[in-house]
Amino acid sequence: MARMSVPPEVDDVDLEEVNLFDPNLYATGDPHAIWRALRLRDPVRWQQLDDGRGFWSITRYDHACRVLRDHDLFTSEGGNLLYTLGSWDPAAGKMMTSMDPPGHTELREPLNHLLSHRELVRREDHMRRAVRRFLLPLLDDSPWDLAEAGMSLPMSFTGPLLGVPESDWAALARTSVAAMAPDDPEFGVGGTEEAIAKAHFELFEYFSALVHDRGTELSDDLIGCLMGTEIDGRGLTHDEVVYNCYSLLLGANVTAPHVVATTVLALIEQPAVQDEIAARPELVPSAVEEALRWSSPANHFMRHAVDDVTLGDVRIHAGDPVVAWVGSANRDEEVFADPYTFDVARKPNRHLAFGFGRHYCVGAPIARIALGLVVSELVGLVERFELAGPVERMRSNFVAGVKHMPVVAHLRADAARVLRAETLEPE
Ligand code: HEM
């Protein structure tokens, strides 16, 4: 797959033609070639859009860390994704992702606790079973679209944590993708604005009704946690609870599936790596970190400069939008040896797939546990995957996603028995 292999010489890229805003680039082009050229030739670059809007593109690792870490200089309150560029973010100051400390810290603290590794390991058996159930279609010899099916997988981990009924998981998973990849006609209906508005409306209505129905009843799930959280000496408003339910839902649904699909693709391209993990299961944790770096499912995060600031040798002005391209930082040759090699034993691996600083992904512990289970089950049950159709990528400048990837699997000797057991035994 050209997109993940070594990009062409940096001189082949015409920087005047570069358009990182264009969702088509991520569906059919190769952002890695462009990111590499920018890192080496113009690491802090202004992109002007035809409609008058514009933003700084940050492509180097050290600059990305600075932008994501320094919340005094680079605020999240103006919106953290490019789709809000140039418009007021209605979630500003209400949703964790669009807040700065100290409010952000107060809101996040109780969630940190519920989502800590310590709290989550006791769910591991349940999560392993969810992974095996997800893999059941592999028993069938016909091609299985692993990427499409994978979009529902996070709900089986986060659904119970959030406290949303299983009957709603499939619809929530699909609407989440429409909200974060509205440019892709397969998920968003109508134009980008219309698709976002529809998806947001549906998700906000959904959580609003759910929170309303709970009344004053406090539960030990994430929604209950938000309903009991205080910031600045007062409880969260109904809207604040709803915004943060939305954020937790999307945080999980639009990222993790693409790590799974991209990793299986890497294993198809390099079967020896699959054998290596199968032979040395102790590699699973580092394989997960490499899978995160390799896939970098959240392409970018945006901030706004609070004051004039110099980055590299470029002067950024107060109010300017600044976009840290996470996918680029994770291939920075100054930080990662052989960045275009999928190295499951890579150490150290200080990737930015979960971000950096105060907004570092609050769901990272559950994502790591879930991905560890996925990798160990995949290599434990499957000897080889084969592509059974074209790989299609998502049309989105935010989600670095695979939306279709039909595969067939050659299972290991005991796999059928292990998987069938999941259909027989009740939870
Ligand atoms: C592979 C899976 C995941 C990846 C790659 C990922 C990536 C990220 C990144 C890069 C950020 C930082 C955003 C910023 O700096 O503005 C973030 C924040 C966040 N993530 Fe994740 N995420 C993943 C899984 C999850 C899961 C499972 C959940 C929910 C349980 C979640 C919920 C959130 C939330 C609520 C935030 C905002 C945190 C804050 O603003 O303090 N994420 N995620």
From TrEMBL:
Gene3D superfamilies (alphabetical): Cytochrome P450
GO molecular function annotations of the record: cholest-4-en-3-one 26-monooxygenase activity; heme binding; iron ion binding; steroid hydroxylase activity
GO terms, biological process: cholesterol catabolic process
Homology family: Belongs to the cytochrome P450 family.
Record's keyword annotation contains Oxidoreductase: yes
Entry keywords, A to Z: Heme, Iron, Metal-binding, Monooxygenase, Oxidoreductase
Superkingdom of origin organism: Bacteria
Identification of the protein by name: Cytochrome P450
Alphabetical list of Pfam families matching this protein: p450 (PF00067)
Entries under InterPro entries matching the protein: Cyt_P450 (IPR001128), Cyt_P450_B (IPR002397), Cyt_P450_CS (IPR017972), Cyt_P450_sf (IPR036396)
